[in-house]
Amino acid sequence: MDKEVQGEEYLKDMNCPVTNCIFSHNRKYLPSLSDYDAIVFHVAQPMDVKDVLRSRKDNQIYIMANQESPVHTAHNLKRDNNFFNMTFTYRLDSDILFPYATIMDIKSGVIVAPSRNANWMEPENVTDPRILNIIKSKSKMAAWFVSRCKSFSNREVLTQKLQQFINIDIYGKCGNHSCPRTDQNQCLDMLNSTYKFYLAFENSICTDYMTEKVFLNMDNYVIPILYNGVTDMQHFLPPKSYINVNDFNSIEELANYLKFLDINPQEYANYFWWKKYYKIDNNPYPNSYCKMCMKLNEWDVEAKRQQYVDVAKWYNYKTCNNKRVNF
User: Could you name the CATH architecture of 103-281?
Assistant: First the structure.
């Protein structure tokens, strides 16, 4: 949401079924906090909520919003029981889904994923000569863009193990290569033209936690290698559009498969079959705000509000498993 206040026109532009919500990040948009039907709390940072609690009215909805890992933010949720009424996060079991990106069916315009009901077409062979020419021009194996050198997931250990078998260029302060962060397009173009794989390794392995490092690069013709806490990838990505570390019994087995794709351009090209039918939307906010408006309208007619007795327990860091892969 770019503007300070967004309302009916904002929702109409995205073809939202309901348009009677006004969103604002200006706390003084209305005279009092008690005048808002709902208040969204971004819990990635600690907050002092005393002034909010003093003005809370009985039918006011409090929404817990977060896109950060519980490993880094769960401690911010130590609040009184029954504080929150809705959850607004990347997790599929949230009341309102707040993903890092969505995948849309090109023909129908319908959002397919993330969703527990995602229904994909069957993968097929890629015969487009343009794609095959892009692939043949690539000269390097894999790249990793990283700024946090130590992680809860131990992804740096995984990378070191993989480097024993294939060449990986590491960009950022954790490696010997650089690409200007001020020119993201240049970095993405380099991936598209030079590398066959990129490492999309999360810094923590938590339920449904898959960030923009996966989706931003999928617009290009480079295969992501995933390491995250998603238990069923079909809920998030088309089949045969990625390589999942967790699908292999060892790092060496993974490396051997990457080497196989490296020398078999047709097999490599088949990982881009989905681009003919689906596209990535890296701006999921409008759809998420539409869903929020719809949810709030549904709850207006309910006699009793839902309350989370302990939302911290639901979002706890113990939902993360940072020893998932046996290195």
Answer: 3-Layer(aba) Sandwich (3.40)
